[in-house]
Amino acid sequence: MSKLGIKYFFPKLVVLNQNGLLGIFPWWWGGISLFIIGLWFLRERTYNWELCLILAGGVSNLLDRFLWGGVVDFPIFGFLPAFNLADLMIDLGIILILFKGFSKNL
User: Which regions span the lipid bilayer (predicted)?
Assistant: First the structure.
C-alpha cells in the first residue's frame, strides 16, 4: 500500500512533516547535510556502510519532500516523535559511526 493510500484510509496514522528534524529545523538543512555527508563519504573509507545508511535515508526523505511536499512520518508510539523507515536508517547509521569511533579509542 502506498503512502498516499495509507493517508487516505488511515489519516491518523500519517503525519506530513514539512519542517526538518523533529519539525524544528528548516527543510533545507537536509539538503545541506546530505551534501556534506556525501563529501565525507567520498573522502572517508572507514564508514562506508554507515554512511550508505545515512545517505539512503536522507535521499528517501528528500524524495518525500519533492513528491509529497514534506516527509511522510508515522506516529507509532505516542511518547516518541513521528518517524519513518528513512529516519530509522539515518539514526542507525549515526549510532554505528559513534560505536565504531568509540571502539577504536578503546
Answer: 20-42, 49-68, 74-99
Catalytic pick among 71, 73, 90, 97: 73
HEC assignment per residue over 34-99: HHHHHHHHHHCCCCHHHHHHHHHHHHHHHHHHHHHCCEEEECCCCCCCCECHHHHHHHHHHHHHHH
The SS3 assignment for 18 reads coil
91 is catalytic: no
Which pTM does this prediction carry?
0.70
Give the residues across from 15 on adjacent strands: 73
Query: Active site includes 73?
Result: yes
pLDDT at 32: 80
Q: Please indicate, yes or no, if residue 78 is contained in any of the structural domains.
A: yes
* Structural domain boundaries, residue 52: 48-106
- Tens of pLDDT, residue by residue over 13-72, are 777 777 766 556 666 676 787 788 778 777 877 778 888 898 899 889 888 888 888 888
Catalytic residue among 87, 89, 90, 93: 87
